[in-house]
Amino acid sequence: MLLAICHHSLPAWPLNLILAQLVGANLVLFATYKVVLYPYLLSPLRHLPRLKGGYPLINHALLTFQRPLGDRLLNVHKTVPNNGIILFRGFFNSESLILTSTATLADILVAHPYDFEKPRPGAEFLSRVLGKGLIVVEGDLHKFQRKNIMPSFSFRSIKNLYPIFWSKSVALTERISTETFGVSPTVDGSGAVTGYVDVNFWSSKVTLDMIGIAGLGRDFNVLSNFDDELVEHYDFITDPSSIQNRILFGLWMAGLKSFAKVFLRSHDQNLTRRTNQLRIICKNLIMEKKQSLKAGSEGSKDLLSTLLESNMFSDDDLVDQLLTFLAAGHETTSSTFIWVVYLLSIHKDIQLQLREEIRANIPHNPEANAEFDLAETLESLPLLNAVCNETLRLYPTVPLTSRVAARDTTICDAHIPKGTRIFMSPWAINRSPDLWGADSEEFKPERWIDEKTGKPNKTGGATNNYCVMTFLHGPRSCIGQGFAKGELRALVAAFIGAFDIELENPSYVPVPSGIVTTKPHDGMPLKIKRVGEWASTIIWK
Ligand code: HEM
C-alpha cells in the first residue's frame, strides 16, 4: 500500500535526471561559495585596499593585458590609496594582488622568494623550448642552477666580454653606414652625408650576434648573413608576429594545451621539429667546444666555456641553459637599445653632450691601445651610464611579471593564501611619482649623476634600489643584468659616437607593444648623419 502511494507521489523521473539535478545543485552551491561567499565574507584578502568598479563578472580581468603593459597598473598605483598591496578582482570575482611599495617587493623577492613561483601555464609553455633552463625551474633545482651559473656572469667574466660587445657594436655602425650611405649617399645643406634607417631591424641582429659569440662561442654574423640555421629555427619558434604562435600561447595560458595541439596540429608539430633541431645544433656546439677545450685552446671567454669548466651540468642541461640565454638575452637588450635611440633623438642637447663625452674618452679602435681599459671606461663615463640607466628605468623591457603563492605565506604581515596570483610591474614602480617625485615620467639622465662628484650614482636619487625594478631583485632577478648593461653601453657609445640621429618623422610617438617584452609597435625609423672623423686612437691619460 505504502509502496503504491510512494510510487504515485514521486515524479516518474529517471535516476540520471535526479543525479544531474544533484550535480547541478552542487555546482550552484560551489559557484555561490566561490563567487560570492568566499571573496566577500571569508577571504583573508578582503580587507586589503581594493580597486573598485570594473565590468560585471569580469571585473578588472583585463587590467594586466592592456597595452602598454603596466601602464594601467601605474594608474592604479596612483589612484588607489594603499600600504603596498592592492587587491583587484577578475573573472567571477577571482582575487589577485598588485604590489606597490618597495617594502612589499623586497619581502616577496628577497625575504622569501621561494614561497612564490612563476605561473604554471606560462612556465610550461616556455619549457617546451627551454627545457629545464634557469628561467623556468623552481625550488631546489633553481637554487642549484643559479649558484653554479652565477660565476659565468661575475663581474670579471663580464669584463672579459667587453671587446666582443665593442667589436659587434662597431660592426653595426659599419653595416648601417654601408646600407644607408653606400649606394646613393645624400648630402644635406651643411655638407653632411644623410640617410634613413629603421634601427629596429638592426638592433635585434646585433644583439643576437653578441649573445652568439659571448654566450655560445659562435659567431652567427647575422649582421651580414641572414641564413644561419640556428637563427632561422629560433626566429620561427619565437616570432611574436606569428598569429599561430600567439593563438598557441593564448590557448596554453588558458589551460587548453591539449586542444591547442589538435587545433594547430601542423604548426605544433613544426614547432616540435624545429625545437628538436635547435637542441641538436646546440648539442653539437657543446661537443665542439668540449673538444677545443680538451685540445687546450686558450682564450674562450664565452658563457658556455665557463659553464663547461664548472663541470656541474650534463650536456642536456647545458643545451637548456644555452637556449635560455638566447631567449632571455637577445630581444630584451635590443628593445632597450631602441628606446635609448628614441629618447636621444628627441633630446638633441643630451645627444650632443653624450657624443662629446664618448669621443673625448673612447678611441674608435680601443684594441689598438693595450693600455686602454675599455670596460673600465665604459662603466665610468657619467653621461653614458646615466642615459642607459634612465632608459632602463623608463622603458623596462619586461614591464609586468607575476607570481603565484606556492603555499600559505605572508607579505609584510598580510596573510596570503596558497594559489594567490601576485602582479609586479617594473613599468609602474619605475615611473611611480611616490617613489620618483612629480617628474617621474620625464627623461632626466642627470638623476644618475652625483651632483658633488660628477660620477655615476647607483640609485638615480631615489631612496633605495627597489625603486628600479627593471631586472627585479633577489635570487630570481635577471642573472644577465651585468651582461645586458655591458652590451648597452657599448652599443650606445659606438652608435652615438658615429651618428647624429633624429626621428624620420618628427611627430612620431612610438607605442610600446609586444607579448612579453616591449618594443615600439611601428619600429624606429631614423634620419641619420655620419659625424666627422672619430679619432682612431686616443692617448690614454
Ligand atoms: C635589458 C635587458 C634585460 C632585461 C630588462 C631583463 C629583465 C629580466 C627580468 C625582469 C627577469 C625576471 C623575470 C621574472 O622572474 O619574471 C629576468 C630573468 C632572467 N634573465 Fe634577463 N633581462 C635582460 C637581459 C638578459 C640577458 C642579456 C641575459 C643573458 C645573457 C638574461 C638572462 C636572464 C635569465 C637566465 C633569467 C632568469 C633568472 C632566474 O630566474 O634565476 N637577461 N630578466
UniProtKB/TrEMBL annotation:
Keywords assigned by UniProt, alphabetized: Heme, Iron, Metal-binding, Monooxygenase, Oxidoreductase
Domain of life of the source: Eukaryota
SUPFAM superfamilies: Cytochrome P450 (SSF48264)
GO molecular function: heme binding; iron ion binding; monooxygenase activity; oxidoreductase activity, acting on paired donors, with incorporation or reduction of molecular oxygen
Binding site for heme: 478
Known cofactor(s): heme
InterPro entries recorded: Cyt_P450, Cyt_P450_E_grp-I, Cyt_P450_sf, Cytochrome_P450_monoxygenase
CDD domains assigned: CYP_FUM15-like
Family stated for the protein in its record: Belongs to the cytochrome P450 family.
Name under which the protein is recorded: P450 monooxygenase
Species of provenance: Talaromyces proteolyticus
